[in-house]
User: Fold these one by one.
Assistant:
Number 1:
Amino acid sequence: MMKKKILGLAAALTLVSSLALAAPQSGVYQQMYADGRLKSVVTILHNPGTGDYMAQYSMGDNTYVCFDALDNKGYETENYASKLEETGSSYAASEKCFVIDAANLAKCGQKELFKVNAVKKQGPVLSFAGEDRLTVSGAGTKYDGEYYFSPRSKPQANNALMLYAYEAARNNSLFEEGTGANTYRIQQYDLAPWVKRVELYYKDGSQGDYSESLLMDNELNIVMSCNTEGNASCKPLFVSDKYVQWAENGLASFKTCVGGDESSLYMHRYLAKNFPELTKSNNMTLVFKDFFGGEGENAVFTRLYDLVKDADGVKVLAANVGHSDNDAMQVKKYMGLRSITGDEVRIRKKPNTDCDILGYVNKGDVVEVLGLVNQTGEAFGNKWAAIRLANGNMGYVSTMFIAGVNN
């Protein structure tokens, strides 16, 4: 059975005391046995959140903590993850936590499906002394004691911590139920070592039968959520302020991916740089439609996408997008300021002719087009466009009278 081993770094560090409450420093803290063996590890990860247009759900300015208990051979026996909260004189882990036991940790290492316990219990207290030492109390014999900062150990979010941050922001009811019905699989994405794919499976739980996957880096920056039902629909998720640099580093790998999920990340970065008006809000979804290409080593593949936005609760098509391995790009926008090409063009309350007329526009009038409307029983068609009226309300106009949309 494959096991995951954590290697400790024994370091003699100068102890620093402080009467004031010291802020938690992101990094790895280690507790050693008297003989120098590593007993347990506490990892602190601070995510500053983001207010930029790339975040579908912002985690906000949060500090997370994860505990790793080890056996006498240095193998993990438990992952325990939560959020760190200031208590006044110290810090405490939130009562909401994710726990992965030894049996499921073994499944993680074998890339098998595993389960996580979502529980509510009194969180342990963490007291920081300066920048290099912390004391844990109230966590039991597995974790209680003094820890020392390991400056050469790079913090990496373990499985429990990644899943905690995702589920805590997305599915708070999971913690109220006591034990989650969700199952997971962790896989490393081969084309880029800084990318992990987490596959989530919801069976008979609050989500019903459902699955999706996440792309993330090692420092809790979840950059995309991919719905795996039908064509992949991809949203940027939990994007940190490191996203731009992270995405730039990975573009060479992402743009050559044939599948929809990873190449969608490349396309999203391209749109954010070159068409910010399309991606400046948080309601954008890239829907992978299809790809085509030749055979052999020199084959060039082209991926096709729909860029879908939520306009006042109505899904509209904002653009068609395509990109190829050779960097050929094609973006056709269906939104923005457009001119009307006919006189006495009716503005409808709904995208059909059997509804109220809200008003009229004439040739040369400029309207704000939000996108094409997804008609019932068909793909995004070219019959109706959602527009924003002068009073801020939304109406619908036939696309045959909007310049640059229906041609």
Number 2:
Amino acid sequence: MAFDNAVNQMASAPNLDRKLQLMDSLKIRFPKKDLGEPNAILTGAYANLGQFDKAMSYLHKTTGGSRMTAWATFAYLSNPALNNKAEQIVDQTLRSGKIDKPEKIMLLKLKLNFLEKKQNYRQAATIAKTIIDMLGSKDENANGHYAILLSKSGQYKAAFPYLQEAIENGTEDQEAMAAYRKCYQAIYPGRNVDAHLDSINQTLLAKYKAQYENNIAKELVKVKAPDFELLNADSAVVSPKDFKGKIMVIDFWATWCGPCKAALPGMQQLVNMYKADTTVKFLFIHTAEQFDDTFASVKAKSQAYFKSHHYSLPLYLDLKDKASNENKVAKNFQVKGIPHKVIIDSEGFIRLTSVGFSGSTPEIVAEMDAAIKEIKKLH
């Protein structure tokens, strides 16, 4: 633990001189420890300064995982001139042939990174295909990235099968979805891509709907919901009594939470489905803010995000209690991580808790819809 802490301190040191001082300290304090990771840190530090001879001298002191880490530091270079120099070194190393398969794959990934930065998508796609062939397995992420590169380079027919498979499996990757739209419109210029995508979404929704309608009753519980007070977007205090006799669908989320945001398109569909149903109320509770936890700041960030994505979701705020520094509503509902969804019946009992996001919009719509309908049957 002491060694790991010292290495982390070295990684976060503000400049090269301080990193070198800490490296000297590591050698004295931990003479028997492998210094692969510290050498990788110095590789990146020298590369960022354009001193590639020095960078490579430290890289050559690494082996195994730390060697991969050392090479990976080249991917974080932002200066175009430094990227070009790093790319030359990668090309030279690849031509040398004196590397094993894992290192070659790492170098090819670096080459891919450099090509994408230069927007040379056609050559990048070729490298991506080489990596896929070397991996020798069906990697969805690798295939998806390859398809996006094919699309960006105008190779729509080649990209289409990979993207179609991802779309039909319910991918939520926005870049893949945009690439699929572009490919579809290029290949079928006379067809309506929105209607086509809606058809795929309806097929997925029907599949999940049948699954959850048959099984959701087994997932329902009956636990008295905790009392709570929180603020709505108008800064008014609300509590369960304001929703008496209603089914409450609560979504604990935050603007910094990737899975929370990924789940919102499905939740918006659900809100639309129940728009005319006055017995069901939705509460999108922003909680666990990590930075400026003031009403004005959280409200502004949340509403800006909703507006930019054309969401019409009822916003509520669970701000930190100043005395305890806790988000009390989330604590009362025993929220350990977000997204965290809760459905409360009209008599004030928690009937369903759903934590996390599977990555499928049709699935979350089907699950929540089936739960709401089943809960309605109980009363």
Number 3:
Amino acid sequence: MKTFYWSFLLMLLPSMAYTQNTEKENEFTMSMQIRPRAEYRNGALTPRDEGVAPTSFINNRARLSMDYKRSDLELKMSAQHVGVWGQDPQIEKNGRFMLNEAWAKMNFGEGFFAQLGRQSLIYDDERILGGLDWNVAGRYHDALKLGYANKNNEVHLILAFNQNNDNRTSGGTYYDSSTGQPYKNMQTVWYHYKADNVPFGASLLFMNLGLETGDKAMDDSHTRYLQTMGTYLTYKNSNWNLDGAFYYQMGKNKAADKVSALMGSIQAAYAFDQTWGAVASFDYLSGDKGNGGKYKAFDPLYGTHHKFYGAMDYFYASTFANGYAPGLMDVRIGGRFRASSKVDMELNYHYFSTAVKVQDLKKYLGSEVDYQINWSIMKDVKLSAGYSFIRGTKTMDAVKTGNHKSWQDWGWLSLNINPKILFVKW
């Protein structure tokens, strides 16, 4: 048996040497992430009523990622287990370990590439398409991405078609989005321009979403198409970081309403030095009064909403109540302080209002204060903590439920351990 083993290896040596000489440089990377986060919720996501007790839990992400790369090919596979401490029994027979990423990228030269499979779609500042890394599971799409890039220009075409299973032989292609992706099909074009002599960048986005409606039992499907288009502009020098975005929506939503909605944002951040910084921003997302011929509430779709509209996730990360879609105006003022190379913190104040009036109530929804501190304990290990509170109004009660007289706050503590455990070149 040993003789056969060594003979087989000797037979392989010429082919191995040939591969080493003809293939371009190969890289293999493996990384791990353990990210537990303890939360105290006393009115997060949705305001609480008077007398409702707070809740606490610890969620966790355990992720293993592998990436293979050479000049013309890259493959990534990432698997994760997410949940709450205590959710699974000690003796677990049906685990929830699943692939969150599984894609291949082929580079054809001259800047052209194709990437297909389960992947995150992260564009611009993540207002429309974001990775949602704050969420314990993240956000991923099953898609084909075709692209081209050179020094100043980059363009992507993203195509997706979703189905619940492959055991149908006839009867149409009804798609139940409640058990899968929130859309049946998607076609997106994204273009980015980066200037040479000034720190300026501009992006254009056009997205066509096919949203499924109909009756599964009757094999009756109707696909409504919603279009989102807009631009994102940036200017950044040594002290200033300016950006703005404008998007418009048209077409039809799942309820077959004709849509005419818009959103706009502008942000200015200034770094006084390496220690202190300040930021101010304004966001507007149009709302619907419920009495017009067109639906005017803007849907920010698959963005990272936690990043923009307050850390307590009252808006777009969670839904409005009682059928309201009042939109949002958000004025933010914040500051950043870097105590050392390992410790930084930030404090933000949000002034929330509806974009349209709700009944005979004022537009003012309430004010939120968010604080966060980050400490790099050691290489690949970061400890973060945050605390937020919000003071609402009667308008908040109407569109989000709860009691604005009740104290609403939220606190969390997270440890992110994310080392690269293997890196090989050959």
